[in-house]
Amino acid sequence: xxxxxxxxxxxxLKEYKYELGKIDKGYANRTLxxxxxxxxxxxxxxxxxxxxxFVGGKGFGLWYLWxxxxxxxxxxxxxxxxxxxxxxxxxxxxxxxxxxxxVCSLSPLTDIPIDSNVGGFFGPLLKFSGFDALExxxxxxxxxxxxxxxxxxxxxxxxxxxxxxDGHVLGEQLTEMYADNEADKRNVAVVTAGTGAEHSRFGxxxxxxxxxxxxxxxxxxxxxxxxxxxxxxxKIKALIVKFSNVKGDLNNPFDQAIINKTGIKYHKExxxxxxxxxxxxxxxxANIIEVMDAYDLLPVMNYQYGMHPDTQxxxxxxxxxxxxxxxxxxxxxxxxxxxxAKAADxxxxxxxxxxxxxxxxxxxxxxxxxxxxxNCAIFDPEGILELxxxxxxxxxxxxxxxTATAFAMECYERGIINKEITGGMELNFGxxxxxxxxxxxxxxxxxxxxxxxxGINRMKKLFAEKYGADPDFLFDIGMEQKGLxxxxxxxxxxxxxxxxxxLTNKGPQHDExxxxxxxxxxxxxxxxxxxxxxxxYFPMFRTWFGLYxxxxxxxxxxxxxxxxxxxxxxxxxxxxxxxxxxxxxxxxKKLSVSDMIKESERVYNFQKIFCIRMGKGLxxxxxxxxxxxxxxxxxxYESRQERYDSQLKEKVVYDPEGKSTEEKIAVLRKYRExxxxxxxxxxxxxxxxxxxxVPKLEHLKYLDMELPELIEVIKDxx
Length: 718
Known about the structure:
Residues 27-245 form the Aldehyde ferredoxin oxidoreductase N-terminal domain. Its cofactor is [4Fe-4S] cluster; tungstopterin. InterPro entries: Ald_Fedxn_OxRdtase_dom2, Ald_Fedxn_OxRdtase_dom3, Ald_Fedxn_OxRdtase_N, Ald_Fedxn_OxRdtase_N_sf, OxRdtase_Ald_Fedxn_C, Tungsten_al_ferr_oxy-like_C, W-dependent_AOR. Belongs to the AOR/FOR family. The chain is of the alpha+beta class. It folds into 3 domains: 3-242, Aldehyde ferredoxin oxidoreductase, N-terminal domain (Aldehyde Ferredoxin Oxidoreductase,  A, domain 1, 4-Layer Sandwich), CATH 3.60.9; 256-485, Aldehyde Ferredoxin Oxidoreductase Protein, subunit A, domain 2 (Orthogonal Bundle); 495-717, Orthogonal Bundle (Aldehyde Ferredoxin Oxidoreductase Protein, subunit A, domain 3), CATH 1.10.599.10. Helices cover 41% and strands 13% of the residues. It is built from 29 helices and 17 strands. The strands form 4 sheets. Strands 1-9-8-13-10-11-12 form a 7-stranded mixed sheet. Strands 3-2-7-4-5-6 form a 6-stranded mixed sheet, with helices on both faces. Strand 11 (205-211) and strand 12 form a beta hairpin. Helix 12 (381-394) packs parallel to helix 15 (432-444). The longest helix is centred in the C-terminal third of the chain and has 26 residues, at 661-686. The N and C termini lie far apart (61 Å).
């Protein structure tokens, strides 16, 4: 169907006009509220309190969400919101990785607030159109789009009955529909979900940016926690923003010269050092596939193992040499010379509704290659790219899909489920056809794919209650916590990374703390106090990126040549100073490192109390599946027997000689679980929380966050 016909079938439900305004030191100083139940559209002022306590980005998103819901609100209630916010630095073009926005909502997987960061053009163009955040609430009766024209100052809500739903088709349709011509496509950004988001709990959001070299609309994902599922439950087909004439000074910064100087310095580092370090401009985050395998950290067969001889088939050089297009500038926002948004062009699909079509596949990222590949024992690069494409266009989180499918595969191989339950699928490890069929079933809303799409937490309950599986064993091997599937790193040998996953607010996502190398490889944080300090600093530091609209990758995926000689190389101090300089240049705020951490602590503790308000967030919720800590099964132990036997001798002071594998597993487990309990105590103390993981009132006062509504939630838990 042609674009004109699609457009002519739109029905205008509401039009709202606004004054364009001007950004001041990174802030538009207002936000946009849209309710798709009653088609109410209005502007809200950004207060000084919001800037002081929540900064922007994730902070604004959580604050609006807090005020929109109650402790009884469920993810699919109309009052649940989706909030998109970029932060005051978002949109500058002089420093790499400044196009990020943060998306917040109540998660269908966890029932608590989830935040997910995403690239693409939507966040910056939303700000330049006049808004620091977009707040979506309500439920439409029929599929609608929300269109923001930042050139003319008009917002519309329109019924959109005929467009596609899947991301790669809908993104192209709407980009063409709302652009004036080919050159104007760069000025249109679209947020969509897909058919898979309608039938699973881990639907994602696709954020577009138009690639003029490939002449295709590319996709970046806000992947975690099922926000795309919320999006489709609200009958939102798309959000669209249009803004022309992007320039480097649209943030009207406090001191443009500082931003320019800092950006030039970092661009030179990327140019000189990337090829000597991580090759981000050739392969992106997939550069570490073989590195993880070499250190026994790559998730293999539902995290049972950490390496596999067939990893050579999916190592980064395979994708570089055979699949990923080289020699193009792959930044997902203007000025990002790291250019890590890689893509495989003209990839011919072998399965599903788009079989035979040649498409552009965005990726693979490391998480996709590990989750869709090694964790499911699919050591086939084309299989990974196919699953990657369909996850994206169906709007299915690759991490949750990969981890949930790996869990189902192990349950199948252990006889917990069978072909009758799977609908005839032989769900063995390595079966690409079965994994692809699960995806297509999620898109169609049928079969065992819908069961897997409910997530591991709900699969565990189903398999125990309906099929008689041992719930304790399912807990041990089900790699989820708080309802969120684990991202793709084996953490058995890193106590700090176990905490980096388990002691998060939202669930086990590595964007808070990735400490494996510091802890396991380099032994830089040997004591509980050292680990606790790292599990304080790094989650707060990483939270800070999400407040300002920054990407994490430029911080440490390329580092200064002399970084290893600094006193704290893991922190990359020169780059930390870069960020402080950029923030000063944009906002005029002269922050120290301690100021930076305090800004993040305010939002982090706010989110912690938000989780408590919604029924999670206490010590009991920080319990983790044992497979994240150590060997669950005989096969796992014996695959690393020499290592584990040595640890029993040296750390537990236990002689394994003559003992059965089962006996050794039990002793090692008792030791490791106790270590995790001691780690929790140390981390809670360092974070200013009590032993039940509740922020102390005096700590809130120290942070200037003793808001009455927060104190009301935790006063009886002190």
